[in-house]
């Protein structure tokens, strides 16, 4: 039976479009490409320096969507082919970024260039060619909550007005300049302001996405297995690496920071709604997160330890966590967001989207993937004698 014609939220038929996806080879990009290939008629021009996370979508030629996804190995810093791809597409999605906190204070210039300078031509080509842009920013543009400046024991800290982060109301509050951690968030803030100005002055049709800690399979890398041994990925991969190696999980400054985590598969649903409902998404900035999944980093470590024990069948360590200073773990210039709870009003109103997956469930499916993918390789790596110097 022919599948029913797909319609948008207002009942209009959805026409097949061509999407230029920059950064398609990354964590979010790979899941978005999977969704677009499996559930839509759209075509993807996948632009990235790497394609290992989307190779399963590109080969073999017998895949049902073959011909609808093309990989272009391009570094957008310096490649004249970029404008041509943007002109070929109906929509450009820009995911490209250095977005691992360990880089922000140690590679601040690369971080600023990647998140601001390198995005400038993408915005320019979209605006000059009247092409729609979905630009990926970050929840980190909010920085710290207003409540974090109140006395520690102030009851006002419990008032949502002091911590709920709202796209069209909350300020962006960063640390001082020598806290170079904020190089990333500040670069993201300025590119948001440039996109917004292109919309206001030149009519660019844009949507800005502020992801709130999206996690799931294929996020970052496991150091020493599919990434550099000395690499420091984001917390999911750090903790997964510790669990896979039977090491205690390191809690930076005691793991007191709070985060809300959303399952990548829930978040991708929100992005697909933005893609296929331009009339509802254009001109908006969207928080995309799960306010129901808030934990401290310490609680995340405890939950991941429990879930990993269940999926691997291995007992947890007697002492599953150790505290480390941020200076020791990240080096000079680190600082942190205290709390990140997204206000969901705008995305609910415009797109009717809400996340579905609990933190326990998303950790169970993600750690099952991590164990299945890496446990054997880690066992081999650990059993190999260290080459004598
Ligand atoms: N994952 C999250 O929870 C999260 C949270 C906040 C913001 N974001 C934002 O979402 C976007 C995607 O994040 P992700 O988690 O998929 O990260 P990722 O690092 O997995 O993916 C980024 C991709 O961009 C590519 N890239 C970087 N610079 C490039 C260049 N010059 N030319 C071509 N390709 C380049 C990288 O090779 C990588 O594949 C980023 O802009 C990030 O700031 C993600
Ligand atoms: O081994 C570890 C690793 C990290 N932490 C602490 O966990 C918190 C979260 O860290 P992380 O996931 O690396 O990143 P952030 O949430 O701080 O910022 C990211 O969020 C969005 C994005 O923009 C892109 O993904 C990025 O900036 C943090 O408090 C670490 O200190 C730990 O204790 N142990």
Chart the SSEs and their pairings.
Elements: E1 18-22, H1 27-39, E2 43-48, H2 55-58, E3 69-73, H3 81-88, E4 91-94, H4 101-104, H5 108-115, H6 120-128, E5 132-136, E6 164-165, H7 183-202, E7 206-211, E8 214-215, H8 235-244, E9 249-252, E10 258-260, E11 262-263, H9 264-276, H10 278-281, E12 284-288, E13 294-296, H11 297-312, E14 321-324, H12 326-330, E15 341-342, H13 345-351, H14 359-383
Helix pairs in contact: 1-9, 3-6, 5-7, 11-14
Residues 23, 25-29, 48-50, 75-77, 95-97, 99, 114, 118, 136, 138-139, 211, 213-214 line the site of nicotinamide-adenine-dinucleotide.
Explain the overall architecture.
By secondary structure, the chain is α/β, with parallel strands linked by helices. It has one domain (97-376): NAD(P)-binding Rossmann-like Domain (Rossmann fold). Helix content is 38%, strand content 15%. It is built from 14 helices and 15 strands. It has helices at 27-39, 55-58, 81-88, 101-104, 108-115, 120-128, 183-202, 235-244, 264-276, 278-281, 297-312, 326-330, 345-351, 359-383; strands at residues 18-22, 43-48, 69-73, 91-94, 132-136, 164-165, 206-211, 214-215, 249-252, 258-260, 262-263, 284-288, 294-296, 321-324, 341-342. It has a 7-stranded parallel beta sheet, with helices on both faces. A two-stranded parallel sheet has the order 6-15. Helix 1 (27-39) crosses helix 9 (264-276) and helix 3 (81-88) crosses helix 6 (120-128). The ligand O=c1ccn([C@@H]2O[C@H](COP(=O)(O)OP(=O)(O)O[C@H]3OC[C@](O)(CO)[C@H]3O)[C@@H](O)[C@H]2O)c(=O)[nH]1 binds at residues 99, 101, 138, 140, 184, 213, 234-235, 238, 250-252, 255, 257, 259, 297, 336.
């Amino acid at each position: 039976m022919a599948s029913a014609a797909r319609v948008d939220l207002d009942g209009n038929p959805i026409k097949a479009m061509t999407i230029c996806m920059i950064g398609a080879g990354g964590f979010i990009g790979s899941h978005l490409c999977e969704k677009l290939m499996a559930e839509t008629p759209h075509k993807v021009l996948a632009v990235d320096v790497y394609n290992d996370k989307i190779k399963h979508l590109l080969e073999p030629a017998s895949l049902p969507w073959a011909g609808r996804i093309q990989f272009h190995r391009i570094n957008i810093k310096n490649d004249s082919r970029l404008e041509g791809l943007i002109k070929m597409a109906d929509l450009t999605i820009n995911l490209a970024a250095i977005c691992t906190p360990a880089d922000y204070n140690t590679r601040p210039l690369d971080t600023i260039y990647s998140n601001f300078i390198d995005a400038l031509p993408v915005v320019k080509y979209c605006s000059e060619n009247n092409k729609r842009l979905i630009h990926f920013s970050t929840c980190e543009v909010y920085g710290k909550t207003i409540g974090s400046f109140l006395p520690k024991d102030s009851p006002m800290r419990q008032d949502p007005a002091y911590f709920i982060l709202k796209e069209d109301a909350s300020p962006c509050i960063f640390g001082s300049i020598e806290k170079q951690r904020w190089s990333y968030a500040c670069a993201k803030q300025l590119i948001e302001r440039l996109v917004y100005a292109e919309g206001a002055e030149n009519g660019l049709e844009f949507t800005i996405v502020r992801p709130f800690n999206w996690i799931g399979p294929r996020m970052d890398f496991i150091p020493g297995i599919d990434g550099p041994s000395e690499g420091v990925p984001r917390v999911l991969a750090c903790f997964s690496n510790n669990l896979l190696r039977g090491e205690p999980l390191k809690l930076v400054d005691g793991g007191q920071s709070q985060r809300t985590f959303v399952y990548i598969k829930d978040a991708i649903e929100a992005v697909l709604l933005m893609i296929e409902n331009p009339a509802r998404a254009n001109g908006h900035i969207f928080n995309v997160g799960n306010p129901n999944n808030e934990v401290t980093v310490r609680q995340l470590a405890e939950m991941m330890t429990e879930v990993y024990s269940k999926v691997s069948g291995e007992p947890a360590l007697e002492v599953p966590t150790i505290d480390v200073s941020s200076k020791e773990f990240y080096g000079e210039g680190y600082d942190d967001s205290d709390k990140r709870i997204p206000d969901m009003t705008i995305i609910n109103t415009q797109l009717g989207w809400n996340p579905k997956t609990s933190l326990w469930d998303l950790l169970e499916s993600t750690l099952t993937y991590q164990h299945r993918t890496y446990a054997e390789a880690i066992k081999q790596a650990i059993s190999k004698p260290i080459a004598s110097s």
